[in-house]
């Protein structure tokens, strides 16, 4: 039996938009290439994110499975545990933030790049694509291998592709692939009026 993995919607307690409900982070990707128009759209969604003073500090370096050398270079930046499954994703993206120069404002640039990445992964759902963001990669190696200049910080990587089948994963990854998605309750992070109010 082949287990399809592309449907693992949020078990939401209140109504939310389907695009949010259906986004999740699989490890099984199909080898099917992603059309360039779709990639253009996911980066376009990022382009239209909000940012402080409209500074747009986000940068994306990507490679597809049609550029094996570049794809392998991005794969080599991932920590091994991520590379094991993410190397099969047809598109790999490195997300880079330009640091805002005013002292103490670095976190604002990170916030803005998170906004853009959120738009990117949400747009991907609308196009039938799966995404999996990864903090597990070697940022120093990324900087060296991809010529990232000072003042820019590699933040995350994102695997993008069509959903694959859980059966193609190793046992431990398959188990996680099929496990229920869990979340904290709103009362643990939404406060009315004051902290823990
Ligand atoms: C910034 C960030 C870093 C992440 N790093 C990794 C990672 O290195 N490896 C991995 O397998 N998943 C990684 N994830 C995926 C999370 O584990 C996943 O989003 C979380 O468990 C919630 O599951 P869901 O995305 O399916 O809702 C990361 C997600 C984010 C947003």
From TrEMBL:
InterPro entries: Nitroreductase, Nitroreductase-like. Residues 20-162 form the Nitroreductase domain. Coiled coil: none annotated. CDD domains: TdsD-like (cd02138). The keyword Oxidoreductase applies. Keywords: Oxidoreductase. It holds the Pfam family Nitroreductase. Belongs to the nitroreductase family. This is Nitroreductase domain-containing protein. It comes from Ktedonobacter robiniae.
């Amino acid at each position: 039996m082949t287990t399809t993995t592309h449907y693992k919607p949020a078990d939401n307690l209140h109504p939310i938009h389907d695009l949010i409900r259906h986004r999740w982070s699989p490890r099984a990707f199909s080898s099917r290439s992603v059309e360039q128009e779709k990639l253009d759209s996911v980066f376009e969604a990022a382009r239209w994110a909000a940012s402080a003073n409209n500074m747009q500090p986000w940068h994306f370096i990507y490679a597809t499975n049609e550029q094996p050398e570049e794809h392998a270079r991005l794969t080599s930046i991932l920590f091994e545990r991520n590379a094991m499954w993410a190397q099969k994703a047809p598109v790999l993206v490195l997300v880079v933030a330009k640091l805002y120069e005013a002292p103490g404002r670095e976190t604002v640039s990170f916030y803005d790049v998170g906004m853009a990445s959120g738009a990117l992964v949400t747009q991907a759902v609308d196009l039938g694509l799966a995404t999996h963001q990864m903090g597990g990669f070697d940022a120093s190696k990324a900087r060296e291998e991809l010529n990232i200049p000072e003042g820019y910080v590699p933040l995350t990587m994102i695997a993008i592709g069509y959903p694959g089948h859980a059966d193609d994963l190793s046992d431990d990854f398959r188990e996680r692939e099929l496990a229920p998605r869990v979340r904290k309750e709103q009362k643990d992070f939404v406060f009315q009026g004051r902290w823990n109010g």
